[in-house]
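Field notebook, page 374. I keep forgetting to write these up properly, so this time I am using the form the group agreed on. The chain and the ligand, adenosine monophosphate, are recorded exactly as supplied. Prediction of the bound pose follows.
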Amino acid sequence: MTTVGILGGGQLARMLALAGAPLGLRFRVLDVSADACAGQCAPLTVADYHDRAALERFADSVDVVTFDFENVPAQSAHWLAERCPVFPNPNALALTQDRLAEKQLFASLGLATPAFRTVDSHADLIAACAEIGFPCILKTRRLGYDGKGQYRLRATSDIAAAWSAIGGAPLILEAFVCFDRELSVIAVRAQNGELRSYPLAQNWHQDGVLSASLAPAPEQTEVAALAVAAVHRLAEQLDYVGVLALELFDCQGQLLANEMAPRVHNSGHWTIEAADCSQFANHLRAVTGLPLGSTAMHGVAAMLNWVGNLPDRGAVLSEPRGYFHDYGKAARDGRKVGHATIMAEQPAQLADALGRVAARLHRQHQIAPLLAML
Ligand code: AMP
């Protein structure tokens, strides 16, 4: 019997626990919040990630540790790694916690990125804006996710407001890229170095939060090889074990790396129903030393995120291949509370199904960009 410990008890940990049940895996989850939603599916330890006594008890009760989110303190991950196996390794985790280190790694591996400058002072910001030009986007180097800790600048007159919003913390200024589309590629690397990746997804964001994904991304033959080579290079460089996601901007066929996530990823939720072996099952296979599963997908799939509150599930469940996921969270503005995956054999059938869901849920704004691609 293998017990997997997960640091972070959100929906990703919850979906890992659900995926691990058929493999006979047991789980323990550690989170700072007593109502972390993975606690509905696995025993939950409520503790601070810096609490060494709690971490020690946690390490003693599991066979391997992994993460549901990347902002677990890297020192805690290192400390745990001296007591039990931790995948992905804490160095990879630490690197993805700093947008600057991440961008420098991309550059060192020959992966293009949006132009960027580090910003540690108001004077740096003025100089960086002059070099990068407008529009540009100021981001905290650490602890940012889902568009949090970001400020978009359109002109010199925005500098003061941007600085007062997030100044003081270590920052990075990036050129605002007028991309044609956003893509992500999800790879999984086993302990023996074997690498597999899923078909690319095209993603749409609303206020910095993922709103919808379409897989496979249309017209992906040209860019897929580039994206897969990039994520494989990263995984090898980091001696990575588990699922690694890479977010990319597609600018007329040129791919710019935005960021990576050292965990299962929201843009891969469609793999639960539409791939031979989901990203969750494959992550668990990797971290427990089992053979990887096939990453092939069937037909086409759309994933719709439910942010804030859940819509009527009947609209999704009445579709022949509509799957509704409720994370068991209380409704709250900006919070991811669930998602749906809708599948079909052919793009035209998926378009019909999405059209019906859009009409029943009054979600045209969320679904129209996907329909335009089908
Ligand atoms: P991030 O947290 O860096 O993934 O940013 C969230 C979203 O903001 C991205 O998925 C993009 O939609 C947008 N975004 C972030 N950085 C840039 C950029 N340099 N240029 C254009 N859009 C961006």
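OBSERVATIONS:
- Residues 114, 137, 144, 147, 174, 176-177, 182, 205, 208, 247, 258-259 surround adenosine monophosphate (CB under 6 Å).
- The mean pLDDT is 96.
FOLLOW-UP: compare against the apo run.
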